[in-house]
Amino acid sequence: MAEVKPLIPATSRDVERALGEDPYIGKLRKTVQQLFGAESNPKFAEHAEHAFRGAFALVFFAIPIIMPNEVWSFRDKVMELGVYSSGVCMFIVFNLGVSFGQAFNSCKSGLQGTLVSSMMGWIMYTLYPGGYEATSPEYVFYGGVAAGIIYVSLVMSLRCGISLQMFALSNFASTWMDFLNEKHEATIMPPWTPGWSIQQDTLTQNFVCTGLGMVAVMVASLFPYPRWSLMFVTESQLHANLQVVQVLDTIVKYYSNDKPNVYIKDQVIRRLTKMRGMLTENDSLLAAAWWECYGLGRSQVKRRVLASMDKTTKTISDMIWNAWQESISEDVGEMDAKLMRAVRPSIEEVLKSMQVTLNLLVKAASDGELDDAEVKALENSFKDLQDKDEEMTKSFASARKDITKGEAMAIYKDVRVAQVLLFSISRVVSQTVELADKIKQQMSKSNLLPPAPEMGGWSALFENLLEKDHVIYVARGLLAYLLAFQLGWHGWGGIVPRRAAAVAGTAPFLITMYVGSAMVSDLNRIQGLMIGQVMARVVRGLVDSCYLDDLIGLCLITFVWVFIGVFVREHSTTFSSVGAMAAAFGGTTLLGGKRGPVGRVL
Q1: Ramachandran angles phi, psi of 457, nearest 5°
Q2: CA distances (Å), 516 to each of 157, 277, 469, in order?
Q3: What is d(CA 364, CA 560) in angstroms, rounded to the nearest whole number?
Q4: What's the rounded Cα separation, in Å, for the pair 566 and 542?
Q5: What pTM value is reported for the model?
Q6: Residue 496 forms beta bridges with which residues?
């Protein structure tokens, strides 16, 4: 059966006006999206563009790593200092957010994790500058063990961000291992130590490298055009407005038939699912948008308006879902269908007016303020919506009286489904009018709208620490990390050398949160790790020289590898963790190793 056409199609021009962006940026954005096939598959295009940005930024910032020695003296000095290495790939891939705000928040969290692990290392080496040595008392060793266990337990137990937790634990593994290893010469010097230099402190080098990784992620989020969080929320809200109207129209059409139509019923279910799915990511995007405006100016007003619209749309979605579940469980009679057909024209007029009002709210809030023309348009719009709602109510009352002949039993039983639907539509209209009125007053400096979702502050670190799922996650994480550290400390045959921190350093990236099947998720991550560590090493062997053609080949291979990995992470629910791990560890493996002098003149 043919797809039901929307009452008011949302055009690309509607989206551009609602976004309120610069015409040049809008044209550039549209062109880029078309290159990735946005017209035929918008979600595919969005994920492909995101992967392309990440892969391009990674390869661009990896040029100094790929470059042979003795070509650029400044590059040689930077690499010799240790402030830039292939480890930056890991940071870029894991913190590559969909929007600028999400990327900035994730990078900030990762940078904090690196700083926390560095501070712990500096404190340990301040107390014992050489770490545990052959001549040191035994309490130095056991004190180092206790300090490490306490540190790992705190990082795992507190409600830290995922990025902070991963990098705080991964970076600390080598610091802890080296501190306890009596045969290892100390390579850490706290910045407050007399005679400090960056050459003598690997923790400072690592922190600078992480900062450069953050710059790379920010560049990927800003070029060729910025991907603001509110841009995604605006698009999502416009499409959700359309879905609200479409799903209500399809439900009305379904109940206007004398006999159930399974094709229309399938459309209702798919559209209900699609509408609810559109709103799942808005909270995180709205919270991340704080980093794009710091809670100030017109962008903050727009953020609050969109947050209120998102909340109202979720309420409307729940109302429609409940109305559908209630009505589908009832036996639909001939009178229901007859009544729905009688009032359907007035319902369609209400739905058209409602979509106009909802879209006007998004467009009017695009610049964070309302001018006189926008205020007038909004007032006219929701007055028209109220008038049509009243007309629908009168039409319904008249049609119900004619069809049921005013009989109480017929009104109670024979048109029950139609009454549930009409009541739900009327409630949706009242929600829309109430929202429009609040937004108009808010934009006129009346503080009526609730605040937008916010990122958790310091207090969020201590929330629900005794929650069952969190306790299980902490126990699993601690056990995995400490066992990995033990394995690295004692070694295992000829596979894992003694005093190797790499095993414990990798464990934090494999520890999963309590979502879905932990075993399946862990296996997926291990699979991605093996692809990144083993397969990437095999591919790396094809271009293992410093000749120009091999260097160009390495750039291309790295780009394709990271592009595919990030795309799989974004586009596939099943293999998301496989793609993430393969991209992060594969990129690090491809760009790892030492560089010799150039093989021939470049």
Answers
A1: -95, -155
A2: 20, 18, 12
A3: 42
A4: 23
A5: 0.86
A6: 492
- CATH homologous superfamily of domain 229-288+290-443? Phosphate transport system protein phou homolog 2; domain 2 (1.20.58.220)
Q: 3-class DSSP state for residue 376?
A: helix
Alpha helices in 405-415 (DSSP H): 408-409
Cis peptide before 191 (omega within 30 of 0): no
Contacts of the segment 366-371: beta carbons below 8 A, 24+ positions apart? 366/17, 366/18, 366/19, 366/20, 366/234, 366/302, 367/20, 367/298, 367/302, 368/297, 368/298, 368/299, 368/300, 368/301, 368/302, 369/298, 369/301, 369/443, 370/440, 370/443, 370/444
Per DSSP, the residues of 420-460 read HHHHHHHHHHHHHHHHHHHHHHHHTT---SPPPP----GGG
| Average pLDDT by stretches of 10, the chain with 602 residues | 44 47 73 88 92 95 90 87 87 93 95 97 95 93 97 95 94 96 92 92 94 94 90 87 89 85 89 85 90 86 86 90 82 81 90 86 71 78 87 90 82 81 88 80 61 76 88 92 95 88 92 62 86 92 87 95 96 91 94 71 38
DSSP for 240-254, written as a single string: HHHHHHHHHHHHHHH
Number of residues in the chain: 602
Tell me the C-alpha distance between 235 and 74, whole Å: 45
Q: For the chain, which residues make up each domain, given as ranges?
A: 229-288+290-443
43, with CB counted inside 10 A (0-12, 13-18, 19+), is exposed
